[in-house]
Design brief:
With 378 residues, the chain is of the alpha/beta class. It is 37% helix and 16% strand.
Amino acid sequence: MYRVIALISAFFDAGIRWLRFFLCWSLLTVFAAFSLSAQVQSDEKDEKSEPAGVQVHRDIVYATPAGQALALDIYQPVRQNIRGLMPVLVIFHGGGWLINNKSIMQQMAEYVATHADIVVVNVDYRLLSANHNTTRLYQIVEDAMGATLWVQHNIGRYQGDPARLAVTGDSAGGHLAAMVVLGGQNLSSQSFASRQPGFNPSYLPPGTTAESIQAAGGIRVQAAVLSYAVFDLQARAFAEFETAKNGFWAMGKASARGFFGAGISVNTHSELYRALSPQFLIPQAQHRQLPPQFIHVGSRDNLTTPESARQYVDALQAAGQPARFQVYAGLQHAYLDSGCSAYFGSCFQREAIAPLDDIIRFLTETLTEKQAVTQPAG
């Protein structure tokens, strides 16, 4: 009798886990559809119009990996009271690494550059569907690192201070920002060709290599803002993110596949998935001090949950690393995206302003002249 009860209980638990995964990916599918809708609305805006007191430099190509030109927009405050170089914020958009482009962050970029003396850089990167659906996730991380290096070595032309640079992103973009912070000290021209992977940035300053940047101290930034970010890629893979149950593949018009190509899965190469998971890359402060990080999420977020954000913050604090954590009551996913979301019932002008004001305060407090750290020349 007890054995029958145990079997029934195990069957029930398995059913609950399956139902949780199914509901999660169903939500992802619906979210992806409305995220694409919001992107279209943003694309339809007149991008040639510029916010008051800000000069926008659009579609500057920073790298051309695998023949694909990658561009960024620079929002340069030009107000009369500005003297000298300004801090810099680099933005990576979200979309499950499969949909959206930098236009989805346009309103955020405009808001920060308008309300603070901060140069904002809004970045595009390869999607997994790029190059005939062969782009691998670590190559997207390498795009984010390449964009950061480009900014550090070129932003002075736009009155930005490369020694006061922060990275940010939402959802998948938050994952990329976290990887710049945590993986920027692990550079190698061999990239992920071995079982001891490193990153080969898509852009390298002239006359440098991944190894020379690494020898000079790697990619260092002075702050990070991680908005409802993905912290554990291994858990996502176990939850069937690499299968058709993940609606982002369909929305990105791509067939579901593994992040690392044929023959590689989380069961056979878990170390590769952990190498792309910020949750597992946090160093002890006595070995390497990380820059201050502001992690925030909505209390009703079912895609990148407050619990997953709290786990990352707890791991940072346990390692002695500085972290600030905020849960915004009543907010769901994607509250920093441009436009409005019919699915989430949210609009940028209503939901994004309070979090953005907190982000600006954090950056203003953190990226001061006194706290600036000189970047390596490469």
